[in-house]
Amino acid sequence: MAAAGVAMGLGKKAALGAAGMISGLGAAVAYKLDQEVRADISLHAPHLPWSHSGNFDSLDHASIRRGYQVYKQVCAACHSMRYLAYRNLVDISHTEEEAKKEAEESQALDGPDEAGNMFMRPGKLADYFPRPFANDSAASAANNGAIPPDLSFITLARHGGEDYVYHLLNGYCDPPAGIELREGQNFNPYFPGGAIGMGAPLYNEIIEYEDGTPATQSQLAKDVCTFLVWAASPEHDMRKKMAIKALSMLALLGVTSYYIKRHKWTMLKSRKILFTPRT
Question: In b/e form, how buried is each residue of 226-253, taking b as 16+ CB within 10 angstroms?
Answer without folding.
Answer: bbbbbbbbeeebeebeeeeeeeeeeeee
